[in-house]
Amino acid sequence: MTSTVYYMICAVLTLGVLVGIAMMSKVPTAVKGNLLSAGCTLAAVLVTLYRYDILSDWLLWGSMAVGLVIGLVWTVKIKMIEMPQLVAFFNGLGGAASMLVALLSLLEAPQLDLFSRVTASLAMVIGSITFTGSMIAAGKLHKILSQKSIVWPAHQAITTISLVASAVCVGAAAVEGLSPLLLIVVPLAISGFFGIAFAIRIGGADMPITISLLNSLSGVAGSIAGMAIGDPLLVAIGGVVGASGLLLTQIMCRAMNRSLGDILLGKTSAPAKPKAAVPAPQEKEPEPVVAEELSPAEILREAKKVIIVPGYGMALAQAQHLVKQLSDKLEANGTEVLYAIHPVAGRMPGHMNVLLCEADVPYEKLHEMEEVNPEFDSCDAAIIIGANDVVNPAARDAEGTPIYGMPVLNVDHAKHIIICNYDLKPGYAGVDNPLYSRKEGVSMLLGDASQTLAQLLADLSAPKKSASDAPVVEEEGPAEILREAKKVIIVPGYGMALAQAQHLVKQLSDKLEANGTQVLYAIHPVAGRMPGHMNVLLCEADVPYEKLHEMEEVNPEFDSCDAAIIIGANDVVNPAARDAEGTPIYGMPVLDVDHAKHIIICNYDLKPGYAGVDNPLYSRKEGVSLLLGDAAETLSQLLQSI
Prior knowledge:
This protein is α/β, with parallel strands linked by helices. It is built from 23 helices and 14 strands. It folds into 3 domains: 75 residues; 181 residues, no CATH class; 334 residues, no CATH class. The strands form 3 sheets. Strands 1, 2, 4, 5, 6, 7, 8, 12, 13 and 14 form a 10-stranded parallel sheet that branches. A two-stranded parallel sheet has the order 3-10. Keywords: Membrane, NAD, NADP, Oxidoreductase, Translocase, Transmembrane, Transmembrane helix.
């Protein structure tokens, strides 16, 4: 094969990868786009083998066969909830591959020119950083390591020194005649240590951005390695991966109102003392005739428009299918259901989208934050499922906290908020969510999201009570609220992921939609443990992407929703983020679930989220229904009750 033909093939394959990526941006062509990019990558491998006349090397074929077997086994064994750590692990493998290519090149340093030596050293250093950083990220996500920020004494100085030393090692590669110790071993050790140092202090809430950055670095390392060995195909494909990963990182940083430098320096993950949230202002809604408080089921039953806000809790509870059932039930009741997707909900890009897709939620129902936030003002209910920081109103006002200034889903604008969270703990940022202590318009369904959603579905299925059946002072249950809701917003969080309740969430959504209820999913950017975590889980449960609404888009919907259902979310729906100055979540944009008429909280218990900030929604006397326990169990019970 001549060089001209090879370069032409490289151009075609690179273009094919780009076209595949473009196709993946649209739901109808996403699968085909993924297959196209994968096919072009496979073709690139085969072309490279042919180009260098090594097709007959059976060791290479044997190695690829081993990789194929491992991939097939993981396809069956790896659960959807484990996708974030798998993505981080793959990023690490990409960095390790580039590191090895560069290392082998440097072993022939005497034969290399200046450019090749320096680029090989740079690729080795970046690959080493990517590998060790990704392994730390995967360990945190898999709970082998603490998910909290780990800060060493003089951590900043250590990180800075190791980074500068890594750069010096790359520059030293320009010197001819260096020993392998100085050329390879020392740079590997220093850069590998830097990867550990920068990743170890990044906490769970910022992990989605970290994974995106590591993905970008894996592409950059591959591209530079291609320069070192003179392979234009590796340069091109690596450049595409690096650029796309960096673009995603920038998008997520903007969504979080964060500086990438602050995240990498650990400023946003630094532990802070929990600070009590300023109670959310209560709107006086005179009810001279009916004194009883509606249950979440009753609110959803009457709702015309509901926004569902999934978070990492939905992924943990694997409740995406219950969310879909709830959405279907609401829609069958004539309720419009939207899904609010926060850019960093979950633990990886598109996490909520993937989970909802798995539950067969139509992609068209998944709405990004900017699109869905205005909808909260007119939604009857917002259902938060395992989300906390991404719906925490304190992000608007709690200056000095990690979430201050971060855009959040405006779940607190909904008429009622149903929070299906595991407990009352603040989210990762440690900022109290004022929704938890709001007196009116919030229903807390604490416990495992799959359990609370099941219970909510059960309540919606239960026969509607007439006025003569119960005293006026009786509080309406979550099922009754959802049964009457015209608009419900579901807010998923990490608790849903833990309970693997995404399928129950889908069932709940389906049941609500079947009852004529509009169901929205409110997705906070940092709900879950990776970018798009909630999206992935809800996609897994076949929740239409169009129902997933990002924070900015869905927050306005909370003001007009009858119920918001929180499933395993805490910090992302904590109103304390607006007012609790000095807490980690102060100023972080959150989903405005406290604006919903009623909030159903499906959380495991009443503990604060990761940030350690009490959520005022948990102590609110009116408008909140708490369904505590495992989300899978509570969702199942709720499904039976509806």
